[in-house]
Specification:
By secondary structure, the chain is an alpha/beta fold. Helices cover about 30% and strands about 15% of the residues.
């Protein structure tokens, strides 16, 4: 099924980017407050709105539940594969926060995102968050084992601890298990 369109001469389906405006003052669609919008990557790359902060998250519930933040938007991530978002060079001028699972794949996705946007900071992917949510620890069945070179020293230390099973074998904390109060407090500190 892969490459079906190319094989038969059809136009490829465009990559799409889903985003949610977090600032009620930004009216991207007249009369609609904080809309949830999906655009093709080309249209998204040409946006000219007053966004200065971007939150990228991999979980739809988290994406929809993020609190209002001035001059900010949330982007629903797509796991691995950031080529569509990378076309949006206006993001180079934004503060970008990536919130993924605290597991080896979450850090690998962060590492890959930084290949396009080196200034991305991780959000809620730290040891304090992990330790505050021990009741929700789960198991990662197929951990990532590659060395990651775009992590900060703190991120790298936690990634290595997870990869090398230094805390617990196959440890993971999925982002949707974080308490909303914990999330809100961290976002308010930004």
């Amino acid at each position: 099924m892969a490459r079906f369109a190319a094989r038969y001469g059809f136009v490829e389906k465009p990559a799409r980017i889903r985003f949610h405006i977090l600032d009620p003052e930004i009216q991207i669609i007249a009369g609609i407050c904080c809309p949830d919008i999906t655009l093709d990557a080309g249209s998204f790359s040409r946006l000219t709105i007053g966004i200065r902060r971007v939150f990228i998250t991999e979980n739809e519930i988290n994406f929809l539940a993020l609190p209002n933040v001035l001059a900010a938007m949330a982007v629903f991530g797509s796991g691995y594969g950031w080529e569509a978002l990378a076309r949006s060079r206006w993001l180079d001028r934004c503060v970008i926060h990536y919130w993924g699972d605290i597991d080896t794949h979450g850090f690998a996705i962060l590492d890959q995102l930084r290949s396009h946007f080196p200034h991305v900071s991780s959000l809620l992917m730290d040891r304090a968050t992990l330790e505050a949510h021990t009741a929700f620890w789960g198991r990662e069945d197929k951990p990532q084992r590659n060395d990651l070179y775009r992590l900060t020293p703190e991120e790298s230390d936690l990634y290595d601890a997870l990869r090398d099973n230094r805390i617990r074998e196959g440890l993971r904390l999925e982002q949707e298990h974080l308490g909303f109060g914990w999330v809100r407090e961290r976002i308010d500190q930004l």
